[in-house]
Amino acid sequence: MIKNHRHIVFLISFLAFFGFFNTAEAMTTSELQVKISELQAQIAQLQKQLTAQEEAQTAWCHDFDADLKRGMSGIEIGALQKALEKQGFYKKGNNPASFEEGLFTAVTDFQEKYEDEILKIYDLKLGTGYVGVYTRAKLNKLYGCSSGAATSSITVLSPNGGEKLEAGKTYDIKWNVSGTVDKVIIYLYDFTGTVGTGILAYDVVSPDGRYSWTIPSDIGSGSKLAIAVRDSISQLQVYDMSDDYFSITNVGKATIK
After folding, report:
1. pTM score above 0.90
2. 1.25.40.10, 2.60.40.10, 3.40.190.10, 3.30.70.1650: which CATH number matches 153-254?
């Protein structure tokens, strides 16, 4: 396809100049200069379109495996610039591969766009501009080269937000898997500090995406809780969290005066 496009550009350029020289004898010097400028502009536009098509057809990937912050430079920063440029948050231009103010703003915008996956775990609404573990996880979901990030995904189904659970009872934690995920780790996140964040289960093997969770009777009550399910191997590259908060009520404790 690219080769054909190059032939088309060459053919149009040839025909344009061929037609131009056929009429050149009837033109004044100033008219010739204007015509040459018009032809050059047309060819430049065609070359620009060809370049854009070539870039669109060229796959790009990068595994982000280090935290990044303002003031840093190097290959990792260049990759970050490219990723955020693809997201429409950053215009690289002639800037070197350095983490300057423009990139800091782009990272912040990126974090706020994907706040459910990056900021929500910290109960934040505004981006920090710091590329930490969850920002890297999202970047790797979008652009990671590893097969796990490229072909697999997890989607938490339940509890996924709005559920009202009771301490001492048993509930199913459910999720869907796309691709190859053999084992998962299940986390409970508490954004109020009353219940406590922790790992519920390691290396769960469940083809149907289901884990029976008996909530401890002494767990306490919490209104801002979330479940996260992660691939045991790829960890942060393949994971998902509840879309919204669910709650746990400890009826026994609530009745104590």
Report:
1. no
2. 2.60.40.10
